[in-house]
Amino acid sequence: MTPSGRLFVPSLPTLWPHMLVSKPRPGSLPPFSSPNVRYFYFARNAVWLTVKMLGLDNGEVLMPSYHHGVEVEALVDAGATPRFYRVGSRWDVDLEDVARRITPKTKALYLTHYAGFPGPAAEMRKLADQHGLVLIEDCALSLLSSDGAVPLGTTGDVGIFCLYKTLPVPNGGALVVNGPRSYSLPEPPAPPSASTFSHTVSALLQNLELRGGAVGRGLRGLVRTVGHGTVKAASIERVATGTQHFDRKHVDLGMSPLTKRIALAQDLESIVEKRRRNYFYLLGRLRDVSTPLFNQLPAGTCPLFYPMVVQEKAEVLARLRAKGIDAIDFWKRFHPACDAGAFPEVAQLRRSIVEIPCHQDLSPEVMADVASVVRDAVRSENRSKKRAG
Question: What φ, ψ does residue 143 adopt, rounded to 5°?
Fold first, then answer.
């Protein structure tokens, strides 16, 4: 709890002031350790460029039926046609279904690693090689994760990453090109500095509320009110992150220098360790009130969040948010190009998965409070179901 007694648990990690002046550390994981990398404002920009760079436009790309939708929009805007394969109830890729759906029009296989959990990259690589296809690894939800000793994003022809979901940065996506072939990728221009400044201040204010209780909450509210008025009066374009749709006018935006500075100053190994610690705590405290999607955390996995299985999403989300936990409704909609009726397991996932934060900002004491609130919310949901039945 904060000193005021009110829980405040943001969905993403916050920015500590010292991170603005910390010295850079050598990057030990992709994309920071990758020799052939380009940084963008959004990961979706990297999807768009991948289609153009590898000549996938006017061809078909086999994608998972369990998707966000913005990556599909970027791929379609770049000129490729998505086709979809089955994903099971445990985020498991149906490799036989992938193989069945490959046709002469197929140019690439697209593999998404969900919330840090590794998908079958080696098996998809083998399948791609057998058919002479490109393999795209989408690691937007899996920055810093490995499959055992193999970092995610290094098996495919390209790896695509999102930085701001895992690190306390104002923006940032990355495209890593693997293998011996070299591509001449122009360095995209930096985004508007005012937009970067706005996001940075917001992350600092969230940290203030996380650490400062009622005083921090009041100051954050005051600064946000003044800031919103200033932004509006100055007609500053704030390029929002975490948006639901692809916007062509932002496709050429690069990552800000400030984002790179903050990202390179992070202790990546410590982040992985803290996220795993928090995930294990939730797993131990919540498994008896909701059957976990995963009973274990594979070696090397850096969990983005704890995937909570619920029956009534809206009800549980409302209870959690009322208690100060910024839980997220995870991927509830299919892209219109995908036939929802053909993938019932994915439809059920979209109805039942809630993101519970477990990021590096949350101490063991906070995680104990989070677990208690989540248990109460799920128990209340179960009681409501019994009364309704």
Answer: -60, 135
